[in-house]
Amino acid sequence: MAKRDSFLLRLSPEMMEAVRRWSEDEFRSMNAQIEMVLVDALRRAGRLKGPPPSQPECRDSDDKSPPET
By the 8 A CB rule, do 58 and 51 touch? Predict the structure, then answer.
């Protein structure tokens, strides 16, 4: 297994709760959810090599329009 670094991440209680709910919705640990969000953001910004994310873009829950294709 590849070596992984650890670090302290300070989040507001509101952000922590939002990440907790999102991770539960997608059956991931909070750590895996945060890592997935970071990898997605880094790839979109062109700062991490690799295939584009296979999951659809995150949209606001109020946005009921279908995803762009």
Answer: no
**Is 31 within a domain?**
yes
pTM of the predicted structure, to 2 decimals: 0.67
Does 19 map to a domain?
A: yes
- Per the structure, the complete domain to which residue 39 belongs is given by 13-44
Answer whether 6's CB lies under 8 Å from 16's CB: no
Asked whether residue 56 is assigned to any structural domain, the reply reads: no
Q: Work out the angle between the directed axes of helices 13-25 and 30-44 (0-180°, nearest 10).
A: 90
pLDDT in tens, 19-67: 999 999 999 999 999 999 999 999 999 999 887 656 555 544 444 455 5
Task: Report the distance separating Cα 40 and Cα 35, nearest Å.
Answer: 9
Task: Report the distance separating Cα 33 and Cα 2, nearest Å.
Answer: 19
